[in-house]
Amino acid sequence: MGLHPSIVVLAYSLLIGRGFCSTEHEPKGCDASPDTCKHEVDVVSHLQANIAVDNIGAGVGTADGDDNQKQENYNEVAFRQFVSEFGRTYMPGSAEYAERLTLFSQRKAAVEAQNSMADRTWTAAINEHSDRRHTELQHLFGRVRPRRNYAAASAGIALRQDVNSSQALDAECTKWNDLKAVKQIQNQGGCGSCWAVAAATTLEAHAEIAGKHRTFSAQELVECVENPYNCGGSGGCSGATAELAFDYVTKNSVATKEDAPYTASDDLCFKPNRKREESLDVMNTPGVHTASLSDPSRSFGMVGWERLPENKYEPLLRAVSQHGPVGISVVGSGFFGYHSGIFNGCSDFVINHAVVLIGYGEEYGRTYWLIQNSWGPFWGENGKMRLLRTDVDELTCGTNNKPQVGTGCDGGESSVWVCGPCGILYDSAYPRFEA
Predict the structure, then answer these.
(1) Residue whose C-alpha is closest to residue 374's, from 319, 420, 421, 335
(2) Predicted pLDDT at 165
(3) DSSP β-ladder status, 353-363 and 338-343
C-alpha cells in the first residue's frame, strides 16, 4: 500500500520545520553540507516508514472508506507523529487532544494549500506553532500597536543628516550575518517580549560593531521598563516598544544577559530610582535622541538612539546597510507557518510584532528584507525570514484601524498610516554607539 501524499508532505514538513535540510535558497552562510543533507534524507525515509506502519495499523487507505473519514485518519496519523516529534503530552481521547487535533488539521491544510501554489515565493511547514490556540499565538506578539503618525522632529530632537546619504548602496547587505548577536537566535517562549528581545539583540549587535563587546538582558527590560501610557501593550510580557527599551538603557543602564538571564516571565524589578522620558511626543518623534553626558549608557559606549522617519524606504535601507541592525515593527500574524523563501503573505497593516532587520538582498530578480525573529532557531530559515522588498515599498500602504491590538499609547489616534510589506517601514529604531 502506498503512502498518502499528504503524509509524505507532512513528514518532510516536520523535519524542515525543525531546521533540517531544505531545497529552498537560504541566506548566505546557511547552506547545509552534502553530508548533512544525506543524513537528513535518511531521517525523512525513516520517519516516512514509521508513518506508513501507523497507516496500516489505523486502517488508512481502505478502498471502501469514506473520503472524509480517510482525511480525518490521515490527519490523526500525522498528528500522532507531530505529538511525538514535539514532545506534547496530550492524552488520546481527552477534550484537549481533540481540540489540538482540530487546530493541527487546520494548520496542516493551510501548509498544503500554500505549498500547492505553482507560483509561490515561499514555503510553509508544520512547526511548533501548528497546534496552538489563537490566544496562545497572540501571546507571542508584544501588542506593538501604532501610536500615531509623527512626521517631523520636535524641540530637542535632531533629524540627523547622514553624511553617507549620497553614497551608492550595495545590492546586498549580508555583512551583519557574522555578528555573534545575529548568530544567537533567542526564543521568547510564551511571553510577549518580542520588543525586549528585538531591543536587546539590536543593542548587542551595535555594541559588537563598535568593538564594545557586551550583552544586554532582555529579562531586565521585561521586568523594569516602565510603560505608564501602555505603549505597545501594558508592559513586560504584555508588550511595550523598542523605543521605550532604548530610552531605559540610556538612562538606567542594563545588566548583561549572563547576570540576568532570560526566563520568559514577568518578575519584579529590583532596580530603584528608574528614570524615563516623560514626554510621549519626545519619545516617539523621529530623530536622534542623544544621551546626556551623565547618562549611564555612556559607560559602555552608547551615546543615544535614533528613530527613523516613518514609512520611508531609503532611510531604513541606509540605516541597516551603513550602521547595523535595526529594531522594526511588523504585521506578524501570518508568520507562524513560514519555513523558507521570500514571504509575501501579509494581508493587512495591523502592526503587532517586533523583530530585527539585519540586511537585505536579491534572489532570481526578487528583492527582499532579511529579518531575525525571536521564535527560536527552528522557525523559518534558521530563525530568520526573507520578506518581500520593492522599490515602491513607500507606495504599499494601508490604514491600521486596530491600534488597540498592536506601538500605540493610551489616548492615541484610532488609526494610522502604515507602509511597506507587512508594515515594515512604519516604526524603526536603533542604538548609537561611539566607535
Answers:
(1) 335
(2) 60
(3) unpaired
Would you put residue 157 in left (φ > 0), alpha (ψ -120 to 50) or beta?
beta
Q: By mean pLDDT, which of 15-29, 162-176, 269-283 is the weakest?
A: 15-29
Decide the pairing of beta strands 338-343 and 384-389: parallel
pTM: 0.82
At residue 185, the pLDDT reads: 96
Q: Where are the domains of the chain?
A: 5-130, 138-433
Between the alpha carbon of residue 408 and those of residues 95, 282, 329, 402, the distances in Å are: 38, 15, 12, 10
CA dihedral 106, 110, 113, 119 (to 10 degrees): 180
Looking up cell 524603526 gives: 428
Tell me the CATH number for domain 138-433: 3.90.70.10
For residue 295, the tally of other CB atoms under 10 A from its CB is: 18
Cell triple for 292: 546626556
Task: Please enumerate in sequence order all residues whose Cβ is within 8 A of that of 91, keeping only pairs 6 or more positions apart, or say none.
Answer: 97
CB under 8 Å to 155, separation ≥6 — which residues?
A: none
What's the rounded Cα separation, in Å, for the pair 261 and 184?
14
User: Is residue 162 helix, strand or coil?
Assistant: coil
Cα torsion through 223, 225, 231, 235, rounded to 10: 10
Helices 5-17 and 67-85: crossing angle in degrees, nearest 10, is: 20
Q: To which residue does cell 553626558 refer? A: 293
What is the C-alpha to C-alpha distance for residues 428 and 28, in angstroms, rounded to an integer?
A: 24
- Of 75, 106, 83, the C-alpha closest to 7 is 75
* β-strand pairing of 366-372 with 353-363: antiparallel
In whole angstroms, give the CA distance from residue 7 to residue 55: 9
DSSP at 386 = E
- DSSP 8-state symbol, 296: G
